[in-house]
Design goal:
Oligomer: single chain
Order of helices and strands: EHEEEEHHHHHEEHHHHHHHHH
Number of strands: 7
Shape: globular
Protein name: DNA-3-methyladenine glycosylase family protein
Radius of gyration: 19 Å
Organism: Nonomuraea spiralis
InterPro entries: Alkylbase_DNA_Glycosylase/TA, DNA_glycosylase
Distance between the termini: 47 Å
Keywords: DNA damage, DNA repair
Helix content: 40-55%
Structural class: alpha+beta
Number of helices: 15
Strand content: 5-15%
Largest sheet: 5 strands, antiparallel
Length: 297
């Protein structure tokens, strides 16, 4: 199935779809040399593979699998067509240039909770490399082959029932310790209720009622599921330091970050994305944190 869609303004497809990529080699996300972005999704109608590129300002998309129709129908939302940027104003001079450079920044929405929740839980309290390794391993063992002519190795995340049935030793083999494994398995029991959440506020309430899911995980999920431009990843290991350094020249903590972001209320997540895109980073004071390989414990 195919669809051609003309966005209202400039669109950077890789920037819009980048938040759904979980590290280099993500089995659910690929960028090919022709500039196309490939993405798999477990839609309400079943698995699908989506290929997206932009030609002469128009988005051209192809989809395969039982969920192809759903993927093409929701394509504009995925690419940020419903992202309301009204009311957003740059309040710090340091962000003025990056905001102009990335005026095409749009925060899309997937409408799919479990595909955002599982990798978010895997990323709790560990370095990204470790979480992405676990994600690749789990999709390689339990995901389905991507429908259609997808690049080699692409997989579709498994259904909730599969996440519930993964034995403890396979979680361990993937590098996810028991706490994160239990959090994902428990959330999978409530997947239907989570997927039915109608608003970002409702999803936040449902997620944070589950053991092992707090403010950071909820924000990471809602940013992707609802395109919540105000959901700040409070508790992130790096974010507060980045925000503080970019806006004041000094690192800060979560409370300080929220004070600095208050002028952007309604768009606080959007402001943090622009800060990340600015490239402003505090000077490194030591070696990078090493990944802990839970497979050896």
């Amino acid at each position: 199935m195919e669809r051609r869609w003309e966005p209202a303004g400039p669109l950077d497809v890789e920037l819009a779809l980048g938040p759904h990529r979980r590290g280099t080699g993500d089995p659910a996300w690929r960028r090919t040399p022709d500039g196309s972005v490939w993405r798999t999704c477990r839609t309400p109608d079943g698995p699908s593979t989506l290929r997206v590129n932009v030609v002469a300002g128009a988005v051209h998309a192809q989809a395969w699998g039982p969920g192809a129709g759903w993927s093409l129908e929701t394509l504009p939302a995925l690419l940020g067509a419903f992202d309301d940027v009204s009311g957003f104003r740059v309040r710090h001079d340091v962000l003025a240039d990056v905001a102009r450079k990335h005026a095409d920044l749009r925060i899309g929405r997937t409408g799919r909770v479990m595909e955002a929740l599982v990798p978010a839980v895997l990323e709790q309290k560990v370095v990204g490399r470790e979480a992405w390794r676990a994600w690749r391993s789990l999709l390689g063992h339990y995901g389905e082959p991507a429908p259609g002519p997808a690049p080699e190795g692409m997989r579709v995340a498994p259904e909730p029932v599969v996440w519930r049935q993964i034995p403890s030793w396979h979680w361990h083999r993937a590098g996810a310790e028991a706490v994160r494994a239990r959090t994902i398995a428990n959330a999978a029991w409530h997947a239907a209720k989570l997927e039915a959440a109608a608003t970002t506020q409702e999803l936040d309430r449902l997620l944070r009622a589950l053991p092992g899911i707090g403010v950071w995980t909820s924000a990471e999920v809602r940013q992707r599921v609802f395109g919540d431009a105000d959901a700040v990843s409070v508790g992130d290991f790096h974010l507060a330091k980045l925000v503080g350094y970019a806006l004041t020249g000094e690192k800060t903590d979560d409370q300080g970050m929220m004070r600095l972001l208050e002028p952007y209320r309604g768009h606080r997540h959007r402001a943090t994305v622009l800060i990340w895109l600015s490239g402003l980073r505090p000077p490194a004071r030591g070696p990078r944190m090493a990944a802990r390989d839970y497979r050896s414990f």
